């Protein structure tokens, strides 16, 4: 582009200097007396101009696809007429008998003037506005119109002898021709200005070539209307400048309407191919390219049995969602780029890194000496992240989980190797380990998990869920003061499915939201039924999942449910976990909305999370539930005893109630009483039981009701 800009500036300077030099040396040039030589030169240059004009026409007529450039089509039609006019002018001006008998020298100058006027107006019209594609069907119409106009103009000059004779007899004819030549010059310069405007828009190299052609057209026009002296030398230099303009226009139109679109198509195709096989964020080859590469590797291994082991490692960034949620997607994208760069910089010969999308990468290792060598290299990749990653908000320690499949042995196709490595990395995350190599049992577990998720989706519709209730007891009096509603699933074929097996699947799949809403409605409806039956009202505790808690309309939903059932909110205790309060602003806002309903709020499994005491004292909560892991070994482990004692003491100072989970024997009960723990829940009092059993064993009639 810069090169074409320089050429355009040089063309303007060269034209101006050429005109000045010719004016300076006008006298010696004018002394050339060999008129035959001048006529021969004029004829040669004129025929070259005609050839260039015909080439412009042929370029548009012969090379025309189904849809192509309107600019090229119109330019082609324009210069069909221009080259015919120039050809007639050249032959008549030099006195070729067959032509000069019909068109004299003065009339030939009018032909030249009209030719230049047509080219100036045409170029202004065509290149002064944006180009667009035109259908091939319009091609014939354009050339038919052009042919009619050309024949009409020729008829005017060839068969209009009377008109031409009358015009040559007026003294004003020369002045009129001079005015028209001035108009042509003005139109050329106007076309330059319109094409260049606005100046801040970068012009394509092709348009700069067309601007150079207009400069030479304008220069040729200056020679033809030189006020100092118009002689044969001026006409000769004018035709020479026009020839340069024709050549540049031919080149510019070709570049603008054929070469550049072709290059743009090639670049667009290359860009599409790049995006199809690369990740736009990291620039790494993507899963599609990995599939191709592994297939190529498998074919090479079949041909060359001496090749070593090939290992495919799928890497997953642990807790990436937390970074995205807490620091924003910009930080998440930056982290992915930094991870890709750190691993990519360490890749050796026969090692390739790929992006699998989201927070997963693939690392392909070929020609390895053995399985142990592959595992050692995978461990080296993990140690790359012993040092923290620097983001804009600070340094962050991250870790990866790796799953590996090895050829031969763990798959015979690219799809199998990738799928098995992916299965292994998810197994590593589930087991909380860094590296897992694929084993067939993992695939069975993954299939089992998928089937369980499908069954879980239909469990609500099939009414396979039910609730059990575990009593909450005041430790001093052992009086029932509440109950916790717990979800159970009675699978038609598997029987009872443990919550440990299906709750994580429900949370990952999002099914926990409709299931949680069902639990809330069912527990509240059951509590209201017991109140209507005359039993003493007690509070029912209901667990909220993270997905439920983050719903912006959660308080509104719960309010509608309680209103429809007619249950007073003071008999509902919503249990959340410490991890739900990590985003302090969102958690405080949600808790305040829930408290305005009038429900109680408890923090479940307290002591296993990362709650800040500073935030805890300001949270709108009513109760802490000490996790069962501390209570179960409170008599054997002094550390657990100290933790329970500290939590209880802290809760008293914060004026919060304390409930101990997992109370299983009298020693634990006695210890908790000594710590002034308010309530307990566990097998010492009762295991979770169905509603009918709970009603029979634990509910008491309200005061004033017969027993």
TrEMBL record:
Domain EAL: 449-702
SMART domains (UniProt xref): EAL (SM00052), GGDEF (SM00267)
GGDEF domain location: 308-441
Pfam families referenced in this protein's UniProt entry, alphabetically: EAL, GGDEF, MASE3
InterPro entries from the UniProt entry: Biofilm_reg_signaling, EAL_dom, EAL_sf, GGDEF_dom, MASE3, Nucleotide_cyclase, Rev_trsase/Diguanyl_cyclase
Secretion signal span: none
Organism superkingdom: Bacteria
Entry's transmembrane regions: 12-29, 41-65, 77-103, 109-127, 148-167, 179-197, 209-229
Record's keyword terms, sorted: Membrane, Transmembrane, Transmembrane helix
Gene3D superfamilies in alphabetical order: 3.30.70.270, EAL domain
UniProt entry tagged with the keyword Transmembrane helix: yes
Protein name: Diguanylate cyclase
Originating organism: Paenibacillus jilunlii
């Amino acid at each position: 582009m810069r090169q074409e800009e320089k050429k355009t500036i040089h063309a303007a300077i060269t034209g101006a200097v050429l005109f000045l030099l010719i004016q300076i040396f006008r006298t010696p040039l004018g002394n050339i007396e060999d008129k035959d030589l001048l006529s021969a030169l004029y004829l040669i240059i004129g025929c070259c101009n005609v050839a260039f004009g015909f080439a412009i026409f042929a370029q548009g007529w012969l090379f025309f696809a189904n849809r192509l450039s309107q600019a090229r089509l119109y330019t082609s039609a324009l210069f069909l007429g221009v080259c015919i006019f120039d050809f007639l002018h050249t032959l008549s001006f030099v006195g070729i008998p067959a032509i000069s008998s019909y068109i004299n020298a003065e009339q030939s100058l009018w032909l030249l003037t009209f030719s230049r006027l047509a080219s100036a107006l045409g170029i202004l019209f065509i290149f002064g506005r944006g180009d667009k594609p035109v259908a091939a069907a319009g091609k014939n119409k354009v050339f038919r119109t052009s042919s009619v106009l050309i024949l009409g103009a020729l008829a005017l000059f060839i068969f209009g002898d009377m008109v031409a004779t009358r015009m040559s007899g007026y003294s004003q004819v020369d002045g009129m021709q001079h005015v028209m030549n001035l108009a042509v010059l003005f139109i050329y310069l106007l076309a330059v200005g319109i094409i260049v405007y606005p100046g801040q828009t970068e012009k394509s190299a092709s348009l700069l070539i067309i601007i150079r052609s207009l400069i030479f057209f304008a220069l040729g026009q200056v020679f033809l209307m030189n006020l100092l002296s118009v002689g044969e030398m001026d006409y000769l230099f004018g035709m020479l400048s026009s020839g340069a303009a024709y050549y540049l226009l031919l080149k510019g139109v070709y570049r603008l309407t054929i070469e550049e679109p072709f290059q743009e198509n090639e670049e667009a195709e290359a860009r599409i191919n790049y995006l199809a096989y690369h990740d736009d964020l990291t620039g790494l080859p993507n899963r599609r390219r990995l599939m191709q590469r592994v297939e190529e590797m498998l074919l090479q291994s079949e041909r060359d049995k001496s090749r070593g082991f090939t290992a495919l490692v799928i890497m997953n960034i642990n807790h990436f969602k937390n970074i995205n949620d807490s620091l924003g997607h910009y930080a998440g994208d930056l982290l992915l780029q930094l991870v890709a760069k750190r691993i990519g910089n360490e890749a050796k010969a026969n090692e390739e890194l790929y992006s699998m999308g989201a927070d997963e990468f693939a690392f392909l290792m070929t020609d390895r000496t053995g399985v142990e060598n592959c595992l050692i290299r995978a461990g080296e990749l993990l140690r790359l992240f012993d040092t923290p990653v620097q983001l804009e908000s600070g340094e962050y320690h991250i870790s990866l989980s790796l799953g590996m499949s090895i050829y031969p042995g763990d798959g015979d196709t690219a799809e199998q190797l990738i799928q098995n490595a992916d299965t292994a990395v998810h197994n590593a995350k589930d087991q909380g380990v860094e590296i897992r190599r694929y084993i067939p049992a993992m695939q069975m577990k993954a299939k089992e998990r998928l089937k369980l998720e499908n069954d879980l989706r239909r469990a609500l519709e099939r009414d396979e869920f039910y609730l059990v209730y575990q009593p909450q007891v005041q430790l001093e009096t052992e009086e029932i003061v509440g109950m916790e509603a717990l979800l159970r699933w009675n699978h038609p074929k598997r029987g009872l499915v443990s919550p440990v097996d299906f709750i994580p699947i429900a949370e990952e799949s999002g099914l926990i939201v409709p299931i949680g809403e069902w639990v809330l409605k069912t527990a509240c409806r059951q509590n209201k039924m017991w109140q209507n039956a005359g039993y003493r009202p007690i509070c029912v505790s209901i667990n909220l999942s993270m997905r439920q808690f983050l719903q912006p309309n959660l308080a509104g939903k719960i309010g509608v449910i309680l209103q429809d059932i007619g249950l007073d909110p003071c008999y509902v205790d919503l249990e959340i976990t410490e991890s739900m309060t990590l985003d302090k602003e969102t958690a405080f806002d949600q808790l305040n909305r829930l408290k305005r309903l009038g429900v109680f709020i408890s923090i479940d499994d307290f002591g296993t999370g990362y709650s800040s005491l500073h935030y805890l004292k300001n949270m709108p909560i009513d109760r802490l539930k000490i996790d069962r892991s501390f209570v179960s070994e409170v008599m054997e482990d002094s550390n657990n005893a100290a933790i329970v004692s500290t939590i209880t003491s802290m809760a008293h100072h914060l004026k919060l109630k304390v409930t101990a989970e997992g109370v299983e024997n009298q020693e634990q009960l006695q210890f908790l009483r000594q710590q002034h723990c308010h309530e307990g829940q566990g097998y010492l009092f009762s295991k979770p039981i169905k509603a009918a059993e709970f009603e029979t064993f634990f509910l008491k009639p309200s005061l004033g009701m017969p027993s």
